Amino acid sequence: MGTAIVNPISLMVEIIREHVPEDIWQGSPLIGYRSLGNTNRGEIGEEFVRRYLTLAGIKVDKSKRTSETDLRIENCRFEVKTASLGANGTFQFNHVRLDRSYDYLLCLGICPHAIVFNMWRKGEVAENRAGSLVRMAEGQAVTYKITKKLDAMRPIFELPGSLRCITDR
Predict the structure, then answer these.
(1) Contact partners, residue 83, CB within 8 Å, separation at least 6
(2) Comparing C-alpha atoms, which of 60, 57, 36 is closest to residue 46?
(3) How buried is residue 168: exposed, middle or buried, by Cβ count under 10 Å (0-12/13-18/19+)?
(4) In whole angstroms, what is the distance from residue 110 CA to residue 125 CA?
(5) 84: nearest Cα among 40, 47, 115
(6) Rounded to an integer, what is the distance from CA 133 to the centroid of its chain?
(7) From edge to edge, which strands make up the β-sheet containing 71-73?
(8) pLDDT grade, residue 122 (50/70/90)?
(9) pTM of the prediction?
(10) Which SS3 state, helix, strand or coil, does residue 133 take?
(11) Residue 155, pLDDT score
């Protein structure tokens, strides 16, 4: 019986391939979003919301970088958080704060082939009705994260109508 010669590199590559999760972003038109830093991701999310709503005929003012809120949409102040879809089918919206002056939290989700959103009044966020607030760091109570499943989000085309409902009050 002969001993087979094994190429150790080929064997390792095969084992690695077996353990690497599927990349849901492969071939995505939005894959560039994944390569951005977190600050740029947030700025891109805010700018997308501003332009998308402006094109839909909704008045949006971008706040100054030092402002406590990201956008003023009609007569409401919005905090905007942007996250990309993870391989586990969830979004993690980071640095949600309750000590800022905003009326609504708007979460924008970037998927490989779609954009989704959801939003909640600040009081709903504080009462954990937007999802469980988890501290970003042990021992601090200033910034939180909210994890949302894809099926808890809404298609982006519903955003203008949803905003008209709350800003016409």
Answers:
(1) 41, 91, 92, 93, 94, 107, 108, 109, 110
(2) 60
(3) exposed
(4) 21
(5) 115
(6) 15
(7) 60-62, 71-73, 76-84, 104-110, 115-121, 154-155
(8) very high
(9) 0.85
(10) coil
(11) 97
